[in-house]
């Protein structure tokens, strides 16, 4: 993998991971409060992770624009520095890039504020929505315009995949952290049930839009099993998503029931969530490779 492709894939992984965490955190705040956690405590629990994710998103956007300039100019990363400004001002990808930079920076600024005001949450949601819309326009789905079914499917797919991955990650690494004290099983169970219900909705949306995207971009079964980096990455992504689905299904069918009654059951759910979050991160890496390659149906 050359340096341009490496930066291109790495920046997209960073953007997808940052977006996923921020969407998951936004949802987790709602359910933590609904389960009995004060807004102040929920903010204290999630704030540092949000700032780190939004900072990663800002850096990832800058890296993505740098890599895009290199790809469009057919030059190396060193030479691409001279054409970044030209790309930003004269191309649709450049314009989408600085809009996404504005959106993720807005989220970073809002999350850095020490406030629990309701308006702040809606501003973050608007910023994340704008980010998802613009990110979709920069991929294969945006090539035929905004008002198309492939573009709408891509926006839903990005948002749903982000919600699923983010919910799992935030729950595993932050929201389910017991700290030094004894966990409140009823509160944790209430939160987990809300998280699980939302994850099911997100998974259905991921699979529905994912199948549509695969059909639209791969075209035929022969193309799917042809030897190309795009189809290989697609199949790898499907494998990781399938494993994550099995882990999530295990927690929903067996784990949640045990978590309601015992601390070891709750800890078991968290361990599965941690493993699932790592698997979903691997799926995001495969998805980033997909965006760097031309799909078979477009060739």
Any overview of this molecule?
This protein is mainly α and 299 residues long. The protein has one domain. Helices cover 82% and strands 0% of the residues. The chain has 11 helices and no strands. The longest helix has 35 residues. The radius of gyration is 20 Å and the shape is globular. The chain starts with a helix and ends in an 8-residue tail after the last helix. The model has no long low-confidence stretch (mean pLDDT 88).
Keywords, separated by commas or semicolons:
mainly alpha, globular
Determine the fraction of residues in helical runs and give it as a percent range. Answer: over 70%
Count of helical segments?
Answer: 11
**DSSP strand tally:** 0
Distance between the termini: 22 Å
Number of domains: 1
Strand content: under 5%
> What is the global morphology?
globular
Low-confidence spans: none
**Class derived from helix and strand content:** mainly alpha
- Rg computed from alpha carbons, rounded to a whole number of angstroms: 20 Å
